[in-house]
Amino acid sequence: MADYKKDAQLLLEDIGGKENISAVTHCATRMRFVLVDPALADKEKIEKIATVKGTFTQAGQFQVIIGNDVPTFYNEFVKLSGNEGVSKDQVKSAAKQNMNLIQRAMAVLAEVFSPIIPAIIVGGLILGFRNVIGEVPMGFLDGKTIVETSVFWNGVNSFLWLIGEAIFHFLPVGITWSIAKKMGTTQILGIVLGITLVSPQLLNAYAVAETAAKDIPFWDFGFAQVNMIGYQAQVIPAMLAGFMLAYLEIWLRKFIPQAVSMIFVPFFSLVPTVLMAHLVLGPIGWKIGSFVSMIVNTGLASSFNWLFGALFGFLYAPLVITGLHHMTNAIDLQLVADFGGTNLWPMIALSNIAQGSAVLAIIFLHRGNKEEEQISIPAAISCYLGVTEPAIFGINLKYVYPFIAAMIGSGVAGLISTLFNVTALSIGVGGLPGILSIQPPYYLIFAICMLIAIVVPFGLTVAFRKYGVFNKLDPIDEKTGKIVA
Length: 485
Description:
With 485 residues, this protein is mostly helical. The protein has 19 helices and six strands.
């Protein structure tokens, strides 16, 4: 087992000493710090430490990439520093002191959606597979679909919808649970609240548009009537209700004695929230969500959609740096609920590919630099599988020109994608596997967009390096392939 004492000591010194550490923890590959004064951390010295594979700052945390041995390194660091490790949630909480209001809002949004994204990805893959077997006519089957010609695949198609419906139609349950978990309130109440938004007693949200006003069921309280409308697949109504429940529970716990809190806190939290969800929050949230999705869809469907696609593709990677990209999850899901698909997700997948292709060009340009390849090769693979942060912070922003090359390539691919109305069934796996989330009629054009997202960033990165465009930090020894300081 490697001895990390020396490198841990160097990191402690270069980060500004133990007095500069407000909180520290680690994830799968990185040390995560909340620093008293981030300016005291000497990034250049830290990145020269043998064990360190890169640094970046995100969401108020200074993160140091170590690799798979980070738990061992972390233990050595804590022994030397005397800092007691804390949980990731505690680090996130401490990191908020370094964030502005917008960053905090985006961090909250990220924390709400992060736990449910794996389910949404599975749902996207299931929808994609069901479309292939159930909606695409096959030439070798005389123009019929696989489902139409096979009892087995018809059964598979029907069975998979059980999972797809649970994920997308009952999405509000996941959102209200996640909010309760994030806020530290009673999670089962969050689940119950979500169920009350999608109960079979209610008129299904997908049936509202085709139901006459006089036929909509309602609760009659004598002095008032409340429509019994469900919020299947709706994001904003669920978020509004979830946060009301959480804040109401937190407020009630301040006044209700602990001896009776188990009885009265759940009752006076849940009942008013469910009532307000159907009376006020749900209708308002539905209108807000519909308005947002309509604006985005109008931009995507307008005669200037190519410009919208180019700008979104170009600017998505900078959004990742700021954390604002998390807002696209809610917009994607709202577009799926309102229009049956999303045009944003294909461009996000293409942006992932573009950043990975820029790193691939750096690997090619810096071939022989074994030290950097420990970061660049895993970062490129990660991008092609949909996770761009290691590439953006570890390589592309370090040299600048590959980052800009990737932005341009992503913009071009986004322009073509939007121009041809490439639509995804839902959020799915990013990067190269992103094609699995695309509606079948758009497979070919999306494959062309993927090729653009590979070729253009790679070519521009090589050209920018050769002609010194946007390049100030990458003098290379052409014989060794190593960076010359």
